[in-house]
Amino acid sequence: MLKISKITAPSLPNALVGVPTETVACNNWAADYPYAPQVTFAAAHNGECLFLSFDVHEACTAALVTEDNGPVWTDSAVECFLSFDESGYYNFEFSCIGKALLGFRKTKPDARHADAAVMRTILRHSSLGETCFAERRGDNHWQLQVAIPVTAFLAHRLTSLDGLRARMNVYKCGDNLSQPHFLSWQPIHTDKPNFHVPQFFGEVEFEG
Fold first, then answer.
1. Is 149 exposed, middle or buried (0-12, 13-18, 19+ CB in 10 A)?
2. Which positions fall inside the Carbohydrate-binding domain (predicted)?
3. How far apart are CA 50 and CA 124, in angstroms?
4. Closest CA to 202 of 18, 19, 22, 5
5. What is the chain's mean pLDDT, rounded?
6. pTM of the model as a whole
7. pLDDT confidence of residue 46
8. Structural domain containing residue 38
9. What is the CATH number of the domain that holds 191?
10. What digits encode the pLDDT tens for the residues 1-44?
11. How many folded domains does the chain comprise?
12. What is the per-residue pLDDT for 107?
């Protein structure tokens, strides 16, 4: 079980400095998608917000999606899926420049997406800035930090994350990159790439 530490967080991008990192290294479909970038993440909270930090080294990076709730998974993207109970799970997805998608669903096709007002409450800071760009090839390194308020968990009336238990998985993907890849923090046992599989989420606990 991953313990998500409670911190007194300064503003982004420094909220998770010193928080231990986890590796996103499960290449569950390596036979079809052998390329695997180097990816780590850190998670912490302050009761009112979930903080996530991602560090990525990869050979190709693109940021073509221009708006929130667009197909960010086609760009160079990181994702965090989280479930508090059996009612469904949240999928938070971020491109490398911080364009975001948020949905809540019980199954993959049955999504409720956050509106623009909710999306504006999710703070993001990317080392690549906010401007879209075509694919860049080379020794690319980028970082992304996000702060997700409890009010963004739109199907739950949360007032604090203190002491909560949940299930979670974290991903790195880039469906339309010249080297597409589908990595996860916790292993996934499906024939084809699919992140919408809450049965493979790992347990996490928010420090009280």
1. middle
2. 20-206
3. 12
4. 22
5. 97
6. 0.97
7. 95
8. 2-206
9. 2.60.40.1190
10. 999 999 997 778 888 999 999 999 999 999 999 999 999 999 99
11. 1
12. 81
Amino acid at 18: G
Distances (CA, A) of 74 to 18, 21, 42, 153: 31, 25, 23, 24
What six digits make up the tokens of 48?
């009112």
Structure tokens at 131: 């401007």
Torsion angle in degrees (nearest 10) through CA of 60, 128, 72, 116:
180
Residue 4 near residue 43, CB atoms below 8 Å: yes
Sign of torsion, CA 115 163 95 18? positive
DSSP string, 9-64: --STTSTTTT---EE--B-TTTTT-----EEEEEEEE-SSEEEEEEEEEEEEEEE-
